[in-house]
Write a structure and sequence with these properties.
alpha/beta, D-Maltodextrin-Binding Protein, domain 2, 3-stranded mixed sheet
């Protein structure tokens, strides 16, 4: 089928992009050329013997957006260790941060940054480790329509239930050559506290500021006519089983579910598919802050996919258990070196060289 062929091309492109040279901007809004993601691992990956010598186990969880990447990396890391040293359970970015604050996780995955009111909940200074980036797709289930195009204002109106049928004039304007049915639209969104929701709604506040009225955050007050599902995989499953539906899903879960996704109009006025090249173009222009956080949402450039999201691992700078600290530091080093090779295989884009090296250097800040 056409859709499956297109998905295969996108997944193949992810593999190809891992061989491309790119770099992010630094915290002075400049950018420099970098080498490949594999070369970004120029700092040596932990030796097998060092991994095998680790004794402490780590429990992590949170964001579902990067789950496929962490599961792949953990399988490799634990395989070298000869035991299950690191586990990751997806539960949503908000829940991951809450569990880390409560002490029930050793580190957390989050696509969104903590809110200011969370500051009092942390048990010490925290560090952000960027790991990979990926596109958030607008996935849909509409028979006979394989090449949908959507502008930011149209997306905002659909998600706010202001556009309720597929033949709405706004969708027609984005798709002048498509034959659109008059059937109703079913909007699907995350029901849990989600970094994917945070990035998606933040994108709409940037790209459709006069249209989008629901604000941004891990949760927002969706219209009562919409439907929610937990985790990206849950949203993907609900879209797949619901004709006429549309929602936001990370590329990895959209691909697993065999979904079709729209080309999105970027800030340069170009309709762009969520390919690896378009994702890397968005990341390349992002400003990197001193704490290594960054946002490639609504990035400038004709080739940039506008709903590109980062993801981070959050760790405490001061560890109270020396053995766990050793496992954590070795694991982070692995994720940022050898682990980056897994990114393209599971529909993500690895870090540019300069950002990866900054994250590797930051590991030395962890004490315990």
């Amino acid at each position: 089928m056409k859709t499956k062929r297109r998905l295969a091309v996108l997944v193949a492109a992810l593999a190809a992009i891992a061989l491309m040279a790119t770099a992010c901007g630094d915290d002075e809004d400049t950018s420099s050329s970098g080498s490949t993601t594999t070369e970004a691992s120029s700092s040596a990956a932990p030796a097998d013997a060092d991994i095998k010598a680790l004794t402490a186990k780590l429990s992590a969880g949170g964001a579902s957006f990067p789950d496929a990447f962490y599961q792949a990396v953990n399988a490799d890391f634990n395989g070298v260790a000869g035991q299950e040293l690191v586990t990751y359970a997806k539960s949503g970015s908000s829940d991951g941060r809450k569990q880390l604050q409560a002490g029930t996780l050793d580190f957390a995955g989050s696509d969104s940054l903590p809110k200011p009111e969370e500051a009092a909940l942390w048990k010490g200074p925290i560090l952000f480790f960027p790991t990979v980036a990926a596109p958030i797709t607008m996935s849909y289930n509409l028979s006979g329509v394989d090449d949908l195009q959507l502008s930011p204002d149209t997306i905002a109106k659909i998600m706010q239930a202001q556009i309720t049928t597929w033949d709405d004039p706004a969708i027609k304007a984005d798709n002048p050559d498509a034959t659109l049915p008059s059937s109703p639209i079913t909007v699907v969104h995350r029901s849990d506290g989600s970094g994917t929701t945070n990035n998606f709604t933040k994108y709409l506040t940037l790209a459709a500021p006069t249209t989008w009225t629901l604000g941004s955050g891990d949760t927002v007050n969706w219209p009562p006519t919409t439907q929610g599902a937990a985790a990206n995989s849950g949203v993907a499953a609900l879209i797949k089983q619901t004709g006429g539906s549309i929602g936001y899903v990370d590329l990895a879960d959209a691909g697993k579910a065999g979904l079709t996704f729209a080309a999105i109009k970027n800030s340069s006025g170009e309709f762009v598919q969520p390919t690896a090249e378009a994702t890397q173009a968005a990341v390349a222009g992002a400003e990197i802050k001193d704490d290594l956080t960054y946002s490639p949402l609504n990035a400038e450039g004709a080739d940039a996919y506008p709903i590109t999201a980062p993801t981070f691992l959050i760790v405490y700078q001061t560890q109270t258990d020396a053995a766990k600290a050793a496992t954590l530091k070795t694991y982070l080093s692995y994720v940022l070196t050898a682990g980056q090779e897994q990114a393209d295989a599971v529909a993500f884009v690895g870090l540019p060289e300069d950002l990866a090296q900054k994250a590797i250097d930051q590991i030395d800040k962890i004490t315990g």
